Amino acid sequence: MPDTPQRMLIIDDDEMFCHVLDRAMTRRGHEVVVARDAQEALSLARQHRPTLATLDLKLEHESGLKLLPELLEVVPACRIVILTGYSSIATAVEAIKLGAVNYLCKPADADEVLAAFEKDDGDPQIEVAEQPPSINRIAWEHIQKVLQEHDGNISATARALGMHRRTLQRKLQKRPVRR
Fold first, then answer.
1. Secondary structure class of 147 (helix, strand, coil)
2. How far is the CA of 35 from the CAs of 8, 22, 45, 99, 129, in angstroms?
3. Structure pTM?
4. Rounded Cα–Cα distance for residues 55 and 104 (Å)
5. In 3-state terms, what secondary structure has residue 58?
6. CB of 177 within 8 A of CB of 136?
């Protein structure tokens, strides 16, 4: 990817994160627009035709995974990196299948985001964890997988998992366990 300035769309419902990333990318010479929801993102994508976009996986009332193919339909050449504080293997796999060029866990700084846009190939040298994930992490991953299978429907996911809907909602509001 050239080092020339790019048109970038930041899609995230976290106002402070948007402000910080916007400033960092603007300082690096990029033209930045910010959207806080899917409708605004699609409108700005049509208007500005971004070449790069960061997309939060979990927008306030929407899934970034549902927005991803819609964005690529509007701007097919746009390189999209998913940024999330709610990472899981299931969502990472789906994001790549749906057309994201990379998937990063928050917090990620501007240099990491820019590097993610440029990385096209996998890294066979990446370190494999010494320890298997914790039982809490496995439970989080399973919940994310079942949620994905039910298109983000909380009630259907809770039924499939055999738990009360409110219990599932409380679990989903927590940040995932790292390992």
1. helix
2. 11, 11, 9, 20, 36
3. 0.75
4. 10
5. strand
6. yes
**Could you write out the DSSP letters of every residue in 64-117?**
HHHHHHHHHHHSTT-EEEEEESS--HHHHHHHHHTT-SEEEESS--HHHHHHHH
57 neighbors 95 (Cβ within 8 angstroms): yes
- Return the structure tokens found at 144: 């994310």
Q: Which tokens belong to 45? A: 């994508």
Residue type, 131: Q
Render each residue's pLDDT in the chain as its tens digit; 179 residues. 446 779 999 999 989 899 999 999 999 999 999 999 999 999 999 999 999 999 999 888 888 999 999 999 999 999 999 998 878 888 899 999 999 999 998 888 899 999 999 987 776 777 767 777 788 878 887 888 888 788 788 999 999 999 999 999 888 887 766 66
Find, among 174, 168, 178, the residue nearest to 146 by Cα. 168
